[in-house]
Amino acid sequence: RNHYFHQHVLMNQDANAVPSEDAWLRALKRRTVRFVEMLALMEHSCVEEIPVLQKACFSYLIEDAVPRKERQRIIEAWTSWSDFLFALNRYRALASVFLKYHQHALQEIESLLAPETSPELQDTNQEGGM
Predict the structure, then answer these.
(1) Res. 124: pLDDT tops 50
(2) Is the model's pTM score more than 0.90?
(3) Is the dihedral of CA 37, 42, 48, 50 positive or negative?
């Protein structure tokens, strides 16, 4: 419990009030759930779809009706996007390690929370992109 309270404090350094007994744990759980969701997205290799998208773009680019400037813009955007995907793909193994760690932490956090018996106890606040 102390370990996870410390984690909560590290991730919420701007919080002024001392949270109630389980409020901080529920907040940490919500944030950990979101982090697990984000890391799970990285388990999927976007690089595998590049050849399919490449064929679609290139068949469009060879059309005579596509102006030269638009072709150049598409090629530059495609190159930038591909570079990003290849760079992101390099971190899939690391993301997988963090995913397993945070899945385990989520299980421990859930075991520390008292079973919630009524919907009024559940906090419906969503963190979105935090």
Answers:
(1) no
(2) no
(3) positive
Q: What is the DSSP string of the chain?
A: -HHHHHHHHHH-TT--SPPPTTHHHHHHHHHHHHHHHHHHHTTS-GGGGHHHHHHHHHHHHT-TTS-HHHHHHHHHHHHHHHHHHHHHHTTHHHHHHHHHHHHHHHHHHHHHSPPP-SGGGS-----TT-
Is the confidence at residue 106, as pLDDT, over 90? Answer: yes
C-alpha to C-alpha distance for 29 and 22, rounded to whole angstroms: 10
How far is 102 from 3, CA to CA, in rounded Å?
14
CA 43 to CA 7: how far, in whole Å? 25
